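Forgive a beginner's question, but would it be possible to get any protein sequence you like and the tokens describing how it folds?
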Amino acid sequence: MAALLLGAVGLATGALRVSLTSRDWAVVVLLGIFGNTLFHSLLVLGVHRTSPGHAALLVALSPVLAALLARLFYGEPVGRRRVIGIALGFVGVALIVLRGTHSAASLLGDVLALGASLAWALYTVVGKPLLRRATPLAVTTWATILGALPLLPLGLPGLREVRWAALAPGQWFLLAYLSAGTIALGNLLWYVALARTATARVVGFSFLIPLLATTIAVLAGQETLSPGLVLGALAVLGGVALAHRA
């Protein structure tokens, strides 16, 4: 749905008519795989197997991973404060994953959510240079379309089993919000921001995601606060904030 919406907007505005080299198109394919195929599939599978709070906190590690990848790919300096922040973030992840008694399914869900975090970090870092040669709308649209194609054979069997007529208005609203809001508009605004300012300034705002998601999960009764979860959350958020301020 997000791909169709972005495609319609791109056609109407002419944003899909871009002049890119074959190497640039290869990058767009990678962006589709990282930011859409892998990120969304790993995130959904991870949330299905672990708690919303766990998934949100692990995905919040993506700014830390993005800083490491920026150093690896582009040689961006990583100062002492940023190194401490990265280490603190990983300590937080360990507290979250290892706290209490975990079943195999819960541990698998945590690993899948961490994979989603890495996929989004790659989507952020790899896509940044391409935004100098193409508009955020063009890059976002083509990456969403190409990233959605591998998901079709996986998702179509399940779509046939959905009783669409029985869905409540609230469920239709959530479906529209997830497609038009979090994927189409969210991804577009992410690349608009990346095209205008430094990567570290953009990814630093991601630390708000686990704070809001965990709060909503607790209020909805889907997550129970525990000392390990609180310490892990503080460590992850503190590490991300410290790495951002470096």
In short: The chain is about 80% helix and 0% strand. The chain has one domain: 22-152+171-245.
